[in-house]
Amino acid sequence: MMGRSMLAYIPVNLANIIVSFGTIVVLTRLLNSEEFGRYALAMITMQFAHMGLFTWLEAAMARFQARAEREGDVSSHLKTLYTYALACGAAGFAFMMVVLWALPISQLMKTVLVATLASTTIQIFFNLGMEAHKAAHRVKRYSFTYSTQMLMSFTIGILLILTTPLREVAPFIGIIVALLVMLAIDLPFMLKKMKGGQSQITKAKTYFNYGVPICISLLLAYALNSADMYLIAYMMGEASAGQYNAGYNLANRSLEILFVWISMAATPIAVTLMEKEGVERSREIMKDYGASLLWIAMPAATGIALVSKEFGFILGESVRAEAITVMPLIALAGVLNGLISYYAQRAFMLSGRTSMFMWAMVPPVILNIGLNLWLIPLYGLMGAVYATVISYALGFVLAIAVGRKFYPLPLPVRAAFEIGFGCICMAAAVLALPDMSHIPDFVVLMIKASIGAMAYGVVSMAINAANSRSFVLGLLEKRRLKAVSA
Fold first, then answer.
1. Residue 485 pLDDT class (50, 70, 90 cuts)
2. Which residues, in sequence order, are CB contacts of 166 under 8 Å at separation 6+?
3. What does the angle CA 131 – CA 132 – CA 133 come to, to the nearest 5 degrees?
4. Residues ≥6 apart with Cβ < 8 Å to 192
5. What are the residue ranges spanned by the domains of the chain?
6. What single DSSP character describes residue 166?
């Protein structure tokens, strides 16, 4: 079931890859390190604002769509969420503009943030539709709409940088334009689904009580992820913030794409099974989900650490040298971050005890800020990296320990050891290669990636790591039977 769903989300994942890497490749070349630093700080601020003001609506859409279908009340479910999104959007944007006006920052940074915050206010209406499509298993509509919006916003943003003086503001204008175009297509479909429904305050209260702890939890998790950018910018300057963000994004975003892809496939299935068939059935899919996350993410992180120097060729020269130094350890941090956000957090989501995830994130966030204040003056950008890894490790342990008190989240320990062995063999194969410093970085990257992937694949299949061999043979058998029946 999960395998078929993962295949269906491939177009979204491809769009994610193109935009994520395209953004890093293009922006670090078109913008200087200071401009890229302001862009990165604005993007992080946008995420903080969106999580704090709007994510409770998206979380409620994802969690309660299946229940609304079971109760035959989808129209009121949707009408309630969209109505409150309109109110929150208007009030939230006004609030953000007042705060922005009062902040003691440069006028240039304020201009960037106006476009940034306008885009995130529009984004909530688009995201509600996307969450509804995922929860209702309308995968084709979700994939087309989401992928098109991502590619369109990226393309328009780059064209604006090349043809206008907007510079770091341009990507956010691109997001706004793409959102408005896709909303013109998707919103009428959602309005039809709302026909006959009523905005109900009782539903809104349920959604708010469920979603607000998720908002706070995500804010804390994102602070753990990104608060160091503000500290780096304050202590070392916007250029250093841009260099750190480039390396961090190249390593962490590579892994996050994989986590998001598998999560898209597994989470709606787990929620549907939880609502319709109970805890044990949802636990079965979560067991496969956890093993799948490790099977894909761990070798990816190992590969990033092994080829960070060569991988850095895609970055602009103004950020490259410093960026590649942070990538190996950020790859480790990225695995921990993904397991917190896309696996451990599901225990709180499925159990409905979202407030406990919030409390589990408080200690690592405090630790992260304290370590950054201590280590950045001592070690520069690497100090921020050390703080991130240590804080993520604490966050992962706490999230798992607390989450399992409320939901029997499986721990794929055997799969982790099997995959770890495969990663060791992969690293040994790559490190055994002869010196290739005389060969262009891109060619070396391809050679090392190919050798590493082959080594991991062979070992993984040989020992059936995370049941990977059984899964592949099962797919081949299904294809054979389908061919015979045809």
1. low
2. 160, 173
3. 90
4. none
5. 2-411
6. T
